[in-house]
histidine kinase
Amino acid sequence: KEGVYLEVQTTLYDKNDHLIFIRDVTRLHLLEEMRKDFVANASHELKTPLTVIKGYLETLEMFQDSLPASMQKGIANMSEQSERMEHLIEDLLLLSRLESNDKREEEHWHEVSSWAEAIKKIASPLLTDAHSLDIDIPEKARLYGSYNELYSAFSNLVVNAIKYSPDGGEIKVKWESNEFSGVFSVADQGLGIDPRYIPRLTERFFRVDKGRSTKTGGTGLGLAIVKHVLMHHDAKLQILSELNRGSRFSCHFPANRVRTDDIPTFPAID
Ligand code: ADP
């Protein structure tokens, strides 16, 4: 029947016999579709009122010198919170787009170094004198994928590395490749993560320490975005971390998406 989703599982029963389990997951599938639609629509609908609020806040900011100090503080608070809300809505919309396969962006070959400039731009306002940012990406390295999606993933990892290194330290952004894979990695010398939380980090809104993350202004969706982007690029995320020593987030891309030579890369991947 059309529109029926079945989950099939087989297990070895004894030497020659197999057991086959067939489960009707149509209802689960429909509920998941409803959840995705709801999040996409709600985020979209929240955008318009927020734009109006931000517009009025900007006008108020222009006249704030003539307002009492308590009101100035209130306006600054409202601006900060509306910025946070805007980031949250943008991240929710991006996740919704990533979850619906038909809205994917086109894939092309890109020089891995083309992400470096964009990363520097987003990182520089966050870096303090105690941080150093070291980007090591060979010129000829190329990666096949969607530029904007990969930009979202890579920049989330770099921003996290800085955010969760409050005392500074070195942030190392690196590209390494061999005949089997290409690896984009971001390493920091920051707070690190308790190993028992690592498997949950890519869940939506999962945060190791809510207080710490609220202060750093994250949305709790960054690593969920990274996971979805990598899934679309047949890549895997590896997280190595040691509490109070630092973390390394590595994105492993398969060989057919990676080039390190001057061989023309058109048409598309093998
Ligand atoms: P957030 O917006 O809270 O940063 P993310 O999905 O990007 O959300 O990350 C989820 C959680 O993983 C963070 O709240 C933080 O606790 C932890 N985390 C992510 N990156 C790092 C890092 N480089 N060092 C330490 N903890 C990290």
The pocket of adenosine-5'-diphosphate is lined by residues 156, 160-161, 164, 188, 190-193, 201, 206-209, 213, 218-224, 247 (CB under 6 Å). Residues 26-62 form the longest helix (37 residues). The chain has six helices and ten strands.
